[in-house]
C-alpha cells in the first residue's frame, strides 16, 4: 500500500501585496523579473482586467491588473507599484501589484490546500505561514484563463485507428490542484473520446489509485502537475516508484514551467516524460506515447 505521507521538496516563493496589504505568493520559478510599472499603452476593446501593454526590450507585454482580476480593490496609485513578469504556460505577462515583499524558502509540505469552502471563485491554490502570517499562493493559471481562455484545438480527426484504439484501452488519472488546468486536460481527453479520472492533490490521487486497483478501470497512466501543495509532482512520482503496486505506472509530469528546466529533476524522480502546459496537440502526442508504452509492456 502506498504511503500518503508527504515527501518534502524545497521551493521558493515571491511574496507580494495588493492594496489590502495581505501577503500573497507566487512560485519564484514562474517569475522572470520584477520591474517598476512602466508607461502603458491602452488597447481599445481589451479585457477590462488588462491595464495595457508595456514594451519590454522591444517586445510587447500584456499587463494584468491583478487586483481587479481577483476581485480586490484597485491600487491606491494606479500608475505606481511594480510588475511581476511571469513566464508560464508558454507565454509572458506582467502582474501589476502594490509591492514585492521578499523571497522565502520553504518545503512543499509547508503549502497546505486552500481552506474548505474557499469556493470555485477563489484564486488561490494553497496557503502557508511566514513569520506566523498567513500567505495565500496565487493560482496564476486561473487568472490568465479568466482573461484569455485558450482555444481548444480538436485533434481527434488526426488520430490513426491504431492510436485511437490504444488510447481507448488506457486508463488515465489527471492530477492538478488548479481547476482550470485540470479542465484543460480533461477537455483534450474528451476530444479524443476518452473519459479519465481526476484528482486535485497527490493524496487524493493515491486514494483513487488504491480504490481502482484490481478493477477493470485500474489506472496505468498518470498525468500530474508539478507545482502542487503538500506533495508536489516530484515527490508524488517518487512515492509511486517506491510503491511496488504502482512502480509500473507511466507518469507524465505536466507543468506550467518550462519543461526543459524540469527534465533532469523529473527524470531523477522517476517520471517517464515532462511537458509544458498547455497545448492539446502536444498533450495528445505524449498520451499516445504513454498508451503505446503501456500496451507494449502489458503484452
TrEMBL record:
Response regulatory domain residues are 171-292
Residue(s) carrying 4-aspartylphosphate: 225
Provide an example Pfam family for this protein. Answer: Response_reg
**UniProt domain CheW-like: residue ranges:** 10-149
Q: Which SMART domains match?
A: CheW (SM00260), REC (SM00448)
Could you list this entry's UniProt keywords, alphabetically sorted: Phosphoprotein
GO BP terms: namely: chemotaxis; phosphorelay signal transduction system
Does the keyword Ribonucleoprotein feature in the UniProt annotation? Answer: no
InterPro entries named in the record: Chemotax_regulator_CheV, CheW-like_dom_sf, CheW-lke_dom, CheY-like_superfamily, Sig_transdc_resp-reg_receiver
Q: What is the protein name given in its UniProt record?
A: Chemotaxis protein CheV
Amino acid at each position: 500500500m502506498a504511503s500518503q505521507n508527504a515527501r518534502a521538496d524545497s521551493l521558493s516563493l515571491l511574496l507580494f501585496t495588493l492594496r489590502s496589504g495581505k501577503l500573497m505568493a507566487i512560485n519564484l520559478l514562474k517569475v522572470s523579473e520584477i520591474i517598476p510599472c512602466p508607461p502603458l499603452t491602452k488597447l481599445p476593446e481589451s479585457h477590462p482586467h488588462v491595464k495595457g501593454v508595456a514594451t519590454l526590450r522591444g517586445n510587447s507585454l500584456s499587463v494584468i491588473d491583478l487586483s481587479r482580476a481577483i476581485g480586490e480593490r484597485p491600487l491606491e496609485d494606479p500608475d505606481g507599484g511594480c510588475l511581476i513578469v511571469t513566464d508560464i504556460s508558454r507565454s509572458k505577462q506582467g502582474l501589476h501589484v502594490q509591492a514585492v515583499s521578499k523571497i522565502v524558502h520553504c518545503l512543499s509540505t509547508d503549502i497546505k490546500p486552500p481552506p474548505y469552502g474557499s469556493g470555485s471563485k477563489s484564486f488561490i491554490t494553497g496557503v502557508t505561514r511566514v513569520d506566523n502570517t498567513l500567505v495565500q499562493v496565487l493560482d496564476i493559471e486561473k487568472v490568465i484563463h479568466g482573461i484569455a481562455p485558450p482555444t481548444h484545438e480538436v485533434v481527434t480527426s488526426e488520430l490513426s485507428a491504431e492510436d485511437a484504439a490504444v488510447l481507448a484501452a488506457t486508463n488515465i488519472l489527471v492530477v492538478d490542484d488548479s481547476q482550470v488546468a485540470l479542465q484543460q486536460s480533461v477537455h483534450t481527453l474528451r476530444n479524443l473520446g476518452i473519459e479519465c479520472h481526476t484528482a486535485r492533490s497527490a493524496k487524493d490521487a493515491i486514494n483513487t489509485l488504491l480504490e481502482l486497483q484490481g478493477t477493470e478501470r485500474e489506472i496505468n497512466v498518470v498525468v500530474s502537475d508539478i507545482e502542487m501543495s503538500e506533495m508536489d509532482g516530484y515527490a508524488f512520482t517518487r512515492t509511486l516508484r517506491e510503491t511496488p503496486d504502482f512502480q509500473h505506472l507511466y507518469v507524465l509530469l505536466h507543468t506550467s514551467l518550462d519543461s526543459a528546466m524540469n527534465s533532469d529533476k523529473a527524470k531523477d524522480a522517476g517520471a517517464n516524460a515532462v511537458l509544458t502546459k498547455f497545448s492539446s496537440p502536444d498533450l495528445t502526442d505524449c498520451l499516445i506515447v504513454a498508451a503505446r508504452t503501456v500496451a507494449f509492456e502489458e503484452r
